């Protein structure tokens, strides 16, 4: 009955969205994974000393 239009309003939207999400994920996930790896090497005493440091609290 009705013809389905396959024309996209924004051509290339999926490619640009995928590229943008990839870079955002890399920018967010790389530092967070480095933080987790650094925390995994610390004891609870060292961790508590770091987070209660006056420079960190301020």
From TrEMBL:
<keyword id="KW-1133">Transmembrane helix</keyword>
<keyword id="KW-0812">Transmembrane</keyword>
<protein>
    <submittedName>
        <fullName>Molybdate ABC transporter permease subunit</fullName>
    </submittedName>
</protein>
<feature type="transmembrane region" description="Helical">
    <location>
        <begin position="12"/>
        <end position="36"/>
    </location>
</feature>
<keyword id="KW-0472">Membrane</keyword>
């Amino acid at each position: 009955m009705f013809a389905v239009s396959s024309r996209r309003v924004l051509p290339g939207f999926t490619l640009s969205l995928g590229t943008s999400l990839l870079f955002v994920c890399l920018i967010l996930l790389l530092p967070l994974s480095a933080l987790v790896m650094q925390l995994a090497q610390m004891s609870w005493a060292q961790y508590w000393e770091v987070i209660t440091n006056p420079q960190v609290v301020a």
